[in-house]
Amino acid sequence: MENLKILHLDMDAFFAAIEQNERPYLKGRPVVVGGKPDSRGVVSTASYEAREYGIHSGMSCKEAYNLCPKTVFLPVRMERYKQVSRTIRSIFEKYASSIEPLSIDEAFLEIEENPVQEAKKIKEEIYKKTGLTVSVGVSYNKYLAKLASDLEKPDGFTVMTRQKAEKILPDLPIRKIWGVGSKTEKDLQELGMFKIKDIQRADVLLLKRVLGKRAEEVRQLSYGIDERQLETVQTAKSYGEERTLSKDEHRIDVLRTYVNDFAEELSERLVRSHLKARTVTLKMRYDDFDSISRSKTVEKAVDDKGSIAKIAVSLMNKTDLPNRRVRLIGVQVGNFLYPGDPEQMKFPF
Ligand code: TTP
Ligand code: MG
Predict the structure, then answer these.
(1) 84 lines ligand 1 (CB under 6 A)
(2) How far apart are CA 177 and CA 171, in angstroms?
(3) Ligand 1 binding pocket includes 303 (Cβ within 6 Å)
(4) In this structure, are residues 38 and 62 in contact, taking their beta carbons and an 8 Å threshold?
(5) Does pTM top 0.85 for this prediction?
(6) Enclosing domain of residue 194
(7) Domain shared by 80 and 144, yes or no
(8) Run means of pLDDT, 10 residues per run, the chain, 349 residues
């Protein structure tokens, strides 16, 4: 079985799509985010409608205006885009074991269990929470996942199996190889190489003349071989505090003082990371090493020590206290609400 565990996700016309989504009269119209047409600004994003006129990122707004005078030009609202980016990130964190963020609107994810189904769920959840579409590529390595996400943009969903990769790679243009930019493309074209299959067949020495040290890597990519791992950022799913007691304990009021200490520590960590928790868990190990945990999930996420302690203490009622002795006690908070999550934002989507 193929291990299609790598996902690449890239939001469609990100800045422009956010503007169109928040101002419905812009939907279906050519929109440029970047600045006024008479300014010296450049196009950050062009909506897909604007792209039909040949407008693209990086060109001057003036040039864009000349291509399509009815284009709506908008200023960049970076704070807002970052906020949406965080909402998307929090969705990634819910599903993926590791994440490699690439930019404000793009990331690699690794998902071990049912990656294809999970990828669909992520796409749906992004749409539900933000009203925006994302293009998704699923494959067994980073290069092919990224290639896949681009194939059916916008609103794409492409699963790149080994078989499919072998079929489509040869006829793709060489610039579809990661790291082949316009300069390298030109150099390779001068040697008669236009499609990926030309690189597959090329003499290694010839490739080295243009690519130097990168020749071998480019050749591997031309066959869809890419062994790079995700460069991940670790994302905590929960925070916990626990202590093994110097003496086994069964008195609730003594145990409660530990719980209060933990709640204080956890509250500080949550506030520091701008998180709130929906689930509080009480963990205990009895003197016979029997371990239990009891959880409560609340509707309104918490980050203050009083609420965390109150929930944790209430969970003691669901244990064998005070009839058994405890050698370890701990509290965990999880099921985080991130700053970008809609529930925490001032205005509704
Ligand atoms: P991209 O993902 O490259 O572009 P996009 O999301 O607008 O369009 P698509 O992915 O559908 O092709 O870049 C993401 C955002 O980064 C983009 O919305 C705006 C910003 N950006 C710039 O500010 N300047 C640029 O030159 C580029 C390419 C992007
Ligand atoms: Mg994008």
Answers:
(1) no
(2) 12
(3) no
(4) yes
(5) no
(6) 166-222
(7) yes
(8) 92 98 97 87 96 96 96 95 92 88 94 95 97 98 98 97 97 95 94 96 92 93 95 78 92 96 93 87 94 95 97 96 95 84 46
